[in-house]
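In the design runs reported in the main text, the only information available to the sequence generator was the tokenized backbone. The following block is the verbatim input for one such run; it is reproduced so that readers can re-run the procedure and compare outputs position by position.
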């Protein structure tokens, strides 16, 4: 069973994240969404850093709240989702170019890619494998310095939507 407030928080997470990067990018003249990272929008020297910082913080908090409300999901998966939420909020606290930024961002991306593997359903395991594949593509783009922003956005969007899929699917399944 999923708590009703977990469905609300799971739906708010992608709105905060995608809305944050969309608004911040639109207000940053030299920003290229295909090339530049989400973290660049929240960097210490970014003009409108408060927008992306707020989006990251809200997204992280939403993941924690959602994890507490996914009652029919195994505890191990919920703990990893919550840890990914904490790491996402920490990305807002430790912006670029701080030395702690990259490890915190890596933890967030890793945890948010792995938690579906622990959820115990075939659908979630497939989602976890897709998220890990998207994470690998992002890693390759970082090394090649090509399409970094685009690959990061695809990964982050997928990671932010999956908790909502689980929350709403669980409720729909229980109602039938």
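Verbatim output:
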């Amino acid at each position: 069973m999923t708590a009703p407030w977990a469905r609300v928080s799971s739906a708010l997470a992608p709105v905060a994240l995608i809305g944050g990067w969309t608004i911040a990018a639109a207000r940053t003249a030299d920003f290229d969404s295909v090339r530049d990272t989400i973290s660049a929008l929240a960097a210490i020297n970014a003009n409108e850093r408060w927008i992306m910082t707020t989006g990251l913080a809200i997204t992280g908090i939403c993941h924690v709240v959602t994890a507490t409300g996914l009652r029919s999901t195994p505890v191990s998966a919920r703990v990893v989702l919550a840890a990914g939420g904490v790491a996402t909020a920490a990305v807002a606290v430790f912006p670029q170019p701080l030395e702690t930024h990259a490890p915190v961002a890596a933890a967030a991306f890793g945890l948010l890619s792995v938690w579906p593997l622990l959820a115990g359903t075939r659908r979630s395991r497939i989602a976890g494998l897709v998220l890990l594949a998207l994470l690998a593509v992002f890693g390759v783009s970082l090394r090649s310095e090509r399409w970094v922003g685009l690959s990061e956005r695809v990964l982050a969007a997928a990671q932010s939507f999956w908790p909502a899929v689980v929350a709403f699917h669980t409720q729909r399944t229980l109602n039938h």
